[in-house]
TrEMBL record:
E.C. number: 2.5.1.141
Gene3D superfamilies (UniProt xref): UbiA prenyltransferase (1.10.357.140)
Organism of derivation: Sulfitobacter porphyrae
Compartmental location: Cell membrane
Function: Converts heme B (protoheme IX) to heme O by substitution of the vinyl group on carbon 2 of heme B porphyrin ring with a hydroxyethyl farnesyl side group.
Protein name: Protoheme IX farnesyltransferase
Taxonomic lineage of the native organism: Bacteria, Pseudomonadati, Pseudomonadota, Alphaproteobacteria, Rhodobacterales
Amino acid sequence: MTDVSQTPALENEAELGDYFALLKPRVMQLVVFTALVGMLAAPVSVHPVIGFASILFVAIGAGASGALNMWWDADIDAVMRRTAKRPIPAGKVQPGEALALGVGLSFLSVMMLGLSANLLAAGMLLFTIFFYAVVYSMWLKRATPQNIVIGGAAGAFPPVIGWIIATGSFSVEAWLMFALIFMWTPPHFWALALFMRSDYDDANVPMLTVTHGRPATRRHIMAYTVLLALLAVGTGFTAIGGYIYLTVSVVLNLLFLIGAWRIWQRDEAAAEADNYMVERKFFRLSLYYLFLHFGAILVEATLRTWGMGGW
């Protein structure tokens, strides 16, 4: 939790880029892309102006979540190498400013999405912000090694929101996209935790590498990757899949399984000797994995509008 008394005084006046950094723009890119795919993959077309406005408000909601997360986690961000240069621990932005920005953007995004799309989409966006800021950041992250597993749901809701923007309802296809992100999140973050464990030790965050050790984390990565591969390839045979998606998914999941197998077989001496090179490569692959899967879903959806895609 943020302790204002421990936050460094502002080194200089904050710039616009510092406030933008509070919104976690990299995470926002993934949210925007998956929400857009969810909207375009739906069987109902959306007017371009409504679609653009709706995705914009989803992006603003994602930024609000990021600001609230940085406000709450400023104390642990300050002791982790990966996050020490974020605006609050770096003394660029005061915690109260981040909180005000997060709350203000939350209300704005939810209200405007309800006006531009529908109330169900706005409700899902509100729940997503709450889940990330409160359930994950304020509760799970510091309470359980399953923080990433359960908290990963927050990052998995955007394609569902996108689908609801178009259809005004839930569907199996929307939840398949949700499940794809949900199952991808643990191996993605655990691979990062393997070569960044000292950060979580220093911050006293109960990541799986800290509470159960690296060998257990390697086993978990292997298990989740197997389940993820089954889900991802199986999605290729559903209404949002097709030949292109299935081809992309089979190749990516073979590479992902090989990477997870190599991680599983590694001992710590070998990993330390090459500076966790295998784990780092797996983490980088995981970044492409999700974008390429959702990109393939988008291609299939585009082809279906031309009467060429799907099965």
